């Protein structure tokens, strides 16, 4: 199988696996604190990762690798924690499309840190993403209101996309300073390391959360860990073959899957309108792909 075919496959897998993990995360937050869900998923993946890199001479890695891995871990721990918190409070079919803004964040951060300069198409794509928000950010009556941006779930979602968008740039640098296996391991291990302080910072009762775990939640955690692992591997493979901005833009195909999952699993309304808005936002992402 050629590199181009593998890249397309990785992108498609990433588009599907991310919404699946969001559905499981939202289901888990019904009876578990979102930051605890974040910590458990990172920790389980970290254990697997330690086994993968146990014999690797990690001390030979450059200082650049460690710096980007640490900063990426911090952004990931807080960013994914805020994402799960947003999923607990808001609608999946609204929070998913907001992820389109990640490509905008990725473009800005990639320019500042890596010199990737967007073209006029990139700026046009940003305009479309903002326009599509009009159809997605609806109240219970299906009407757009700027006041929706004040909702706690939306605020958490924007905080998450800024942090995870920044993390994407750090992840790219980790790949450039090592390889895909180490990039996966660093994502998991440093994410687990910094997700624990998030629990302490937000005063989560860890013992209470552990007591809530039962056979049903264990099964959900299993599928969550599998879906996240697949998502990270496919993301890193894509980053290893593409610039950050276009890669994040391509990932926006997951918006349609997220809107459908919100309708299918959580009975969220205004399905057609959200699909239209999502298509406009995806159109913006397609334009961003044309940068450079």
TrEMBL record:
Pull one GO CC term from this UniProt entry: membrane
Q: Which Pfam families match?
A: EamA
Q: Which residues form the EamA domain?
A: 8-137
Keyword DNA-binding part of the UniProt annotation: no
Determine if Lipid biosynthesis is one of this entry's keywords.
Answer: no
How this chain sits in the membrane, per its record, is: Multi-pass membrane protein
Question: Where is this chain's protein located in or outside the cell?
Answer: Membrane
Q: Which residues cross the membrane?
A: 6-24, 36-54, 66-87, 94-114, 120-137, 153-170, 182-201, 221-239, 245-263, 275-291
Alphabetically sorted, this entry's keywords are: Membrane, Transmembrane, Transmembrane helix
Family assignment from sequence similarity: Belongs to the EamA transporter family.
Output this protein's name: EamA-like transporter family protein
Per the UniProt record, the source organism is Cecembia rubra
Could you read off the lineage of the organism from its UniProt record? Bacteria, Pseudomonadati, Bacteroidota, Cytophagia, Cytophagales
């Amino acid at each position: 199988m050629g590199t181009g075919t593998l890249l397309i496959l990785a992108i498609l897998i990433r588009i599907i696996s991310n919404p699946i993990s969001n559905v499981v995360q939202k289901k888990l937050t019904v009876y578990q604190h979102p930051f605890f869900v974040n910590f458990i998923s990172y920790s389980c993946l970290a254990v697997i990762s330690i086994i993968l890199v146990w014999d690797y001479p990690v001390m030979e890695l450059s200082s650049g690798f460690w710096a980007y891995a640490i900063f990426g871990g911090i952004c990931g721990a807080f960013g994914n924690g805020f994402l799960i918190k947003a999923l607990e409070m808001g609608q999946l079919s609204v929070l998913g499309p907001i992820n389109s803004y990640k490509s905008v964040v990725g473009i800005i951060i990639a320019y500042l840190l890596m010199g990737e300069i967007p073209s006029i198409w990139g700026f046009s794509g940003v305009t479309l993403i903002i326009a599509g928000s009009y159809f997605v950010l609806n109240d219970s009556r299906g009407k757009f209101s700027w006041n929706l941006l004040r909702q706690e779930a939306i605020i958490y979602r924007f905080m998450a996309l800024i942090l995870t968008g920044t993390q994407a740039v750090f992840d790219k640098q980790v790949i450039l300073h090592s390889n895909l296996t180490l990039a996966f391991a660093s994502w998991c291990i440093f994410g687990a390391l910094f997700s624990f302080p998030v629990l302490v910072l937000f005063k989560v009762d860890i013992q209470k959360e552990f007591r809530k775990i039962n056979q049903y939640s264990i099964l959900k955690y299993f599928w969550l860990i599998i879906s996240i692992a697949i998502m990270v591997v496919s993301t890193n493979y894509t980053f290893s073959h593409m610039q950050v901005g276009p890669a994040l833009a391509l990932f926006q195909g997951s918006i349609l899957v997220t809107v459908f999952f919100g309708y299918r699993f959580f009975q969220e309304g205004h399905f057609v309108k959200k699909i239209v808005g999502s298509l406009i936002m995806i159109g913006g992402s397609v334009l961003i792909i044309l940068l450079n």
